[in-house]
Here is the input.
Amino acid sequence: MSTAPTTPLPPELQTRLDAAAAASRQLAERPANLTLLRIYALYKQATQGDASGDRPSGFVDRAKFDAWQSLAGTPPGEAAESYIELIDSLG
Here is the structure.
């Protein structure tokens, strides 16, 4: 189970993150699987901080967890900015 970031995102950055998350559901084309994993990991890191808990056993869940865990130590604000940039580049 993960924990929330120690400090919430600034309101302006949270608004931009929310807008990017909405835009991610409206993309004209489905991104490649590795890009989808990056999107997932950045969003989770931005909103929940470092991954914690046991590594899941299912293939997809394990891949998502591993992608998120690879961002351990990345500040939530930095992850949010990277997420927004990635979604913008796909739009």
The helical segments are 11-24, 33-48, 59-69, 76-90. The CA atoms of residues 12 and 18 lie 10 Å apart. The longest helix spans residues 33-48.
